[in-house]
Design brief:
Blueprint (H helix, E strand, L loop, with lengths): L3 E8 L6 E3 L5 E8 L6 E9 L7 E4 L11 E2 L10 E10 L11 E5 L12 E3 L12 E9 L3 E11 L1 E6 L2 E2 L16 E7 L7 E10 L1 H4 L16 E10 L4 E5 L5 E4 L2 E5 L3 E5 L18 E5 L7 E3 L5 E7 L3 E4 L5 E18 L5 E7 L1 E2 L5 E2 L9 E5 L5 E4 L6 E9 L13 E8 L5 E5 L2 H17 E2 L1 E2 L12 H14 L3 H14 L25 H13 L2 H19 L33 H22 L3 H22 L11 H9 L5 H17 L11 H10 L3 H9 L6 H6 L34 H9 L2 E3 L8 E4 L10 E7 L4 E8 L3 E8 L4 E7 L7 E2 L2 E2 L6 E7 L2 E6 L2 E8 L11 H11 L2 H7 L17 H4 L9 H11 L2 H6 L2
Parallel strand pairs: 2-8, 14-22, 20-29, 37-41
Antiparallel strand pairs: 1-3, 3-6, 4-5, 4-7, 7-8, 9-21, 10-15, 10-18, 11-14, 11-16, 12-13, 12-15, 16-17, 18-21, 19-20, 23-32, 24-25, 25-30, 25-31, 25-32, 26-29, 26-31, 27-28, 33-38, 34-35, 36-37, 38-39, 39-40, 40-46, 41-45, 42-43, 42-46, 44-45
Helix pairs in contact: 3-5, 3-14, 4-5, 5-6, 6-7, 7-8, 9-10, 9-11, 11-12, 11-14
Pfam families: Bac_rhamnosid, Bac_rhamnosid6H, Bac_rhamnosid_C, Bac_rhamnosid_N, Ig_Rha78A_N
Protein name: alpha-L-rhamnosidase
GO molecular function, one term: alpha-L-rhamnosidase activity
């Protein structure tokens, strides 16, 4: 049917993936439909090795199911190096049958290690120093016949590589093959080079640099972590029209030399001498008579896996916004954005001119470029011109984190830099953007922008902690606190599939988990860090319904929980060993990075959290004995937690914000204790004048804990706080990414410290998840993952926000929640994709007063159920776009969700003298913390407030606040 279509076909999350090694790949699709309430009732999949489907390898038949995600191929055994075509048609709940979808495909690479013909090669060590800093050049020349129908190159490198054919760079991937736990897993890539080859002579070329494999890593200046010899492993497969095939592998017939990349390190930067270029080294006919021999390096191929992650690429080009001379006399360009990537520049200069670029994130308080927080990372690029006209260059095997670039040696720079000759190339894993958020507060919109830029900068093949200093490591704690925000902003399926497999590979035999993955620094087994083992696969499952990955990671998840289970004498508490605690919390004792919340409190809380996740994962996977076992373990942990960390009167032993947040978010307290914990958390925020004190552990959950406990107003005011410490403090300071420290730059312009002060550190950006789910109200029912059942529940916050919108391109299609609120009306626009349903909550509404598309709810199509609870309407709807409108009557009751509402409005609308006249002591009444969700009449019953109805009426009359009565929502 014309209005029912199957679209956006993917295989293993990708559109037409080239070179996969899955023996049973999974297929997903989306549905487009013009009508509301569309649900798939059946599907059919065809898979063929012919584009015209004249030969069907797998016909699923008509399968009566709503499933449209991760449908596993169940046909004949797949072959190496073969393209498979597939198509899908569906039937829906309205007795409509779609046409076949457009044809999509996947192509296999090698499905077992024995298919490889290549050898690992490296320059002969008696001819070229294997420890040379210069990048190696490798080349091979060969002849081909005519009538080439297809050609693929499969391969990888130990170190980083670039691949060339007949003088052309192949592919747009950067920093290939990426960073994995090389001893156990090494990705290889597949390239279609059909159009690059020709009948007759051809040439292949490889540039090979150190990279993560053997280059300088960590603040400890470690080198050769995985090995001390670079090597290349490639083979070219050419198919002719007659069906024959020729293979050109790496072997000792290849020749070697060093080239213009005389030095390249991830932290230190790159030095490129254009005078040493071997022009045409990958072309046929190049004279390599003076080049050196290659030798076989004996290494296994069993660890080779086809590319799993999104490739790293240039994803955006940025032009500098200005150039200036600093007080110290340096020439600096400003990119206007703290970015991760490289500068590409062009120059015309005499031969041998040295041009140096030094990269940094910020300026100091005097306006000079600041390099102190880089520690031992130079972030320096040096280019030496060949002097043959206009030259263009960008570094090959390094990246920088920067906004400002100091330029030295550029011709005539004293007369001003030609900004048009400089371009910032933004580099990160080329993930598909999926999420959007905006609201009525422009500072919050800038915060969201900073969150996204922080993710882009730190999702460069692994989820790094920072992209600029001598670290850039895959810290597990940072990744897990940010995971939900990350999976909203970008499609993280392949990214985290790859990283979780490395985590599993690096996990210790006792179940312990290293601090960083890949594991290149010492240390393991910290609470909230090791819990990435359970939290991340669970959240990936929730976001994408990826049951296979959950199954794959299950034993790793279980091993981590059992590791915690075995710690100390009490098996239900984790009170021994090293833990980071609430890292970088503001309530940390002097000289410590760990907050005041006891580390054993934090550890036991996460022990419970991971156990709950493991229990739930066991249920999803049908492991019922495990589910029951971990249910019992969880109950015992919670009992032990309450005995150890909650007093008999119901008070937490730790009076910190983070302690209260964890107890609430991980459901460790219940009943009156839970109510008290929530109330006291709110009081801790109010007593601190709406400022937080939380660190890495508490911050991601802080606003969620307040909102879920009924203190959403407090959470919003916490978000909107502009003074230190707050999310918006850095925004007001000009930040364009998320800072590592709440006061990375202090009010006087000085810095927190040089030691550990990244200005691109995404952890505190985890507030994004609350913005999307709570403020905009776009959430899911986790009983049906991947947003199969959507929850739209916008939460308004007084006069503070009047508009919010979130949109997500889910596995099923686009979801949107957009609300506007005025003094008179509330408006909600919702989009629900086909093959899903949604529960929509309309706050402060009555059924008879709500319209959808101008009609009463009962007359609107696509709405399956309608119910009213107090002043809330709850709807169940099918797919489609909906537009709800209703009168904003909430303000007429003048309801105060907390004392801050009253104080705020009175303070804004009145003078101190008027306040004192009508409401003496209102700014700090002793009993005001007891007042919640009270009307004015109820509020008058609290004598501690020293406020009566008469006083309020007099105040309103004197201040002419009649309009305020209806504005207050």
């Amino acid at each position: 049917m014309k209005d029912l279509k199957v679209a956006a076909l993917t295989c293993e999350y990708r559109t037409n993936p080239l070179g996969i090694d899955m023996k049973k790949p999974r297929i997903s699709w989306k549905i487009t439909s013009s009508g509301r309430g569309t649900v798939q009732k059946a599907y059919q999949v065809h898979v063929s090795d012919r584009e015209d489907f004249t030969s069907i390898l797998w016909d699923s038949g008509i399968v009566h199911s709503q499933e449209s995600l991760h449908i596993e191929y169940e046909g004949a055994e797949l072959k190496d190096k073969t393209r498979y075509y597939y198509r899908v048609k569906i039937w829906d709940n309205k007795d409509r049958e779609s046409a076949w979808s457009e044809t999509a495909w996947w192509e296999t690479a090698f499905l077992n290690e024995h298919s490889w013909r290549a050898q690992w090669i490296t320059p002969a060590q008696n001819e070229i120093d294997p420890l040379s800093e210069a990048a190696f050049l490798l080349r091979k020349e060969f002849n081909l016949q005519s009538r080439i129908v297809s050609a693929r190159i499969y391969g990888t490198g130990l170190g980083l590589y670039e691949l060339y054919v007949n003088g052309e760079r192949i592919g747009d991937d950067l920093l290939a093959p990426g960073w994995t736990s090389y001893h156990k897993r090494l990705q290889y890539q597949t390239y279609d080079v059909t159009s690059s080859l020709q009948a007759g002579p051809n040439g292949l070329g490889i540039i090979l640099a150190d990279g993560w494999y053997k280059g300088n890593l960590t603040w400890e200046n470690k080198r050769h972590i995985y090995g001390d010899r670079r090597a290349a492993f490639f083979e070219l497969h050419v198919k002719y029209e007659d069906g024959t095939e020729v293979i050109i592998p790496t072997d000792t017939s290849w020749r070697a030399e060093v080239g213009p990349v005389v030095y390249s390190e991830l932290y230190q930067g790159e030095k490129y001498d254009a005078r040493l270029e071997q022009e045409g080294f990958s072309c046929p006919g190049f004279n390599d008579s003076l080049w050196y021999h290659t030798a076989v390096q004996h290494m296994p191929v069993s660890q080779l896996v086809a590319q799993e992650n999104w490739p790293t690429r240039v994803t955006e080009l940025i032009k500098p916004i200005s150039a200036f001379i600093t007080p110290s006399g340096d020439t600096v360009i400003d990119m206007g954005q703290n970015m991760v990537g490289r500068i590409r520049f062009s120059v015309e200069a005499k031969r041998g001119t040295h041009i140096v670029l030094k990269h940094a994130e910020v300026l100091d308080k005097d306006g000079n470029i600041y390099f102190g927080n880089l520690r031992k990372a130079d972030q320096q690029v040096e280019y030496i011109t060949k002097g043959t006209g206009l030259e263009s260059y960008a570094p090959h095997f390094t990246f920088q984190g920067f906004r400002y670039v100091k330029i030295e040696g550029y011709p005539n720079q004293e007369n001003g830099l030609p900004l048009e000759n400089f371009t910032g190339e933004v580099i990160h894993s080329d993930m598909q953007p999926t999420g959007e958020f905006e609201c009525s507060n422009e500072l919050v919109n800038k915060l969201q922008e900073n969150i996204v830029w922080g993710q882009r900068g730190n999702f460069l093949d692994v989820p790094t902690d920072c992209p600029q200093r001598d670290e850039r490591l895959g810290w597990t704690g940072d990744a897990q606190v940010f995971i939900q925000t990350a999976l909203f902003n970008y499609h993280g399926g392949p990214f985290f599939t790859k990283w979780l497999r490395d985590l599993k590979a690096e996990q210790h035999a006792d179940g312990g988990v290293p601090f960083v993955i890949p594991a290149v620094v010492g240390g393991a087994n910290a609470a909230a860090w090791g819990d990435a083992t359970t939290i991340i696969p669970w959240e990936v499952y929730n976001a994408y319904g990826d049951r296979r990955l959950l199954e794959e990671q299950y034993e790793s998840m279980k091993a981590w929980v059992e590791y915690m289970h075995k710690q100390g004498e009490n098996e239900y508490l984790w009170i021994v060993g090293f833990n980071f605690g609430d890292w970088l919390a503001l309530d940390a004792p002097s000289g410590s990075y760990s907050g005041a919340t006891p580390k054993d409190f934090v550890a036991t809380a996460f022990y419970a959290h991971s156990t709950r996740i493991l229990r739930d994962a066991a249920k999803v996977l049908g492991k019922w004995e495990d589910a029951q076992y971990y249910e019992t373990l969880l109950e015992n942990i919670i009992k032990a937690f309450n005995y150890e960390f909650v007093s008999q009167s119901g008070r937490l032993v730790s009076p910190t914000q983070t302690a209260h947040v964890l107890a609430l978010m991980f459901d460790l307290v219940d009943g009156k204790v839970k109510e008290r914990t929530a109330r006291e958390l709110n009081e801790l925020i109010l007593q601190n004048d709406y400022h937080l004190t939380t660190g890495f552990v508490g911050t991601p959950y802080l606003c969620f804990a307040l909102t879920k406990a009924g203190y959403h107003e407090t959470a919003v005011r916490l978000l909107l706080q502009e003074s230190y410490p707050s999310w918006l403090y850095s925004v007001k300071q000009g930040a364009t990414t998320i800072w590592e420290h709440w006061d990375g730059i202090k009010k006087d312009g000085s810095f927190w410290s040089d030691d550990m002060n990244s200005f691109n550190h995404y952890a505190y950006g985890a507030i994004g998840d609350w913005l999307y789910r709570a403020v905009a109200g776009l959430d899911m029912d986790k009983e049906l993952p991947a947003y199969k059942r959507i929850r739209i529940k916008p939460q308004f916050a007084g006069i503070h926000l009047t508009y919010a919108k979130a949109a997500l391109e889910s596995m099923y299609g686009r979801i949107q929640s957009e609300w506007h609120k005025t003094a008179d009306q509330i408006e909600l626009k919702v989009a629900i994709p086909p093959n899903t349903t949604a529960e929509i909550t309309l706050p402060y509404a009555q059924i008879e007063a709500v319209t959808e598309g101008g009609k009463l709810l009962a007359a609107s199509s696509g709405i399956y159920s309608i119910k009213e609870q107090e002043d809330t309407v709850i709807l169940t709807v099918g797919s489609g776009s909906y537009h709800f409108q209703y009168a904003n009557k909430h303000g007429l009751t003048v309801r105060f969700t907390d004392e801050s509402r009253l104080i705020d409005v009175l303070a804004q609308k009145s003078s101190a003298a008027v306040l004192e006249k009508h409401a003496p002591g209102i700014a700090n009444p002793p009993g005001i913390f007891a007042m919640r969700t009270k009307t004015l009449k109820e509020l008058a019953e609290f004598p501690e407030a020293n406020l009566t109805i008469d006083r309020v009426n007099a105040l309103i009359e004197e201040l002419n606040m009649i309009e305020w009565k209806t504005e207050l929502v």
